[in-house]
Amino acid sequence: MKLKISISILLLAVLTGCTDKKAATDSNFETALNHFVAHERRCIALEDSTFLTKPQPADAGLDLLVTAGMFTKTAAANDASGRPLFQYALTSKGKATRTEFVAMNGQPRVGYLCSGRLVIDKIYSFTEPADNQGVHQSQVTYATKLVDIPSWAQDPAFQKQYQFFEPVATRVAQGAKERQTMVLTSEGWKVQGDM
Fold first, then answer.
1. b/e map of 63-72 (b: 16 or more CB within 10 Å)?
2. What confidence tens digit (pLDDT) does each residue in 9-62 have?
3. CA separation for the pair 178, 41 (Å, rounded)
4. What is d(CA 19, CA 108) in angstroms, rounded to the nearest whole number?
5. How far is 126 from 23, CA to CA, in rounded Å?
6. pLDDT tens by residue, 107-126
7. 3-state percent breakdown (helix, strand, coil) of the chain, nearest 5
8. Contacts by 191-194, CB closer than 8 A, 24 or more apart
9. Which CA distances in Å does 2 have to 11, 12, 16, 123?
């Protein structure tokens, strides 16, 4: 009888530990870190959107996006010097990839074409949670990976034109370790600064 009670208490303790959002576990840290990196995407700013409203000279970067099916390119009139101008327009594929953000200084919306997203690939380690000036904290070391990367963003010509895409992919491919300070809140673990 005592053995059954001991096993029941042990099983209850194990199950409680598995579902406790406040426990320092790989799973809880991964959930919090995934929330933190969920908005990290590789994006091309379309700040100067005049190319969407007025004919422009040919643009190598936009032409790559035309090849990728994100834009159409239609010949328009020539400029005063006789140089051909083109009208670029977002395709339905481009519109589906476009994300808009309102600039913090009250400027109009800025459009972005975004590709891929970061997720947590592995939790390497975490420090034993400890109090730091009344806050329960742990240092978590982890790696991320890029997922949902369309073929157009993996094209070497595209990565050469938009070079900021490549370093993230290289860093992730090399398994670069990252570290964040995690803070225990009433809702569970969160990345410090993401509360």
1. bbbbebebbe
2. 554 545 544 579 999 999 999 999 999 988 676 676 665 566 677 888 988 888
3. 17
4. 44
5. 12
6. 555 567 777 778 899 999 99
7. 35, 35, 30
8. 191/32, 191/33, 191/35, 191/36, 192/137, 194/32, 194/35, 194/36
9. 14, 15, 21, 38
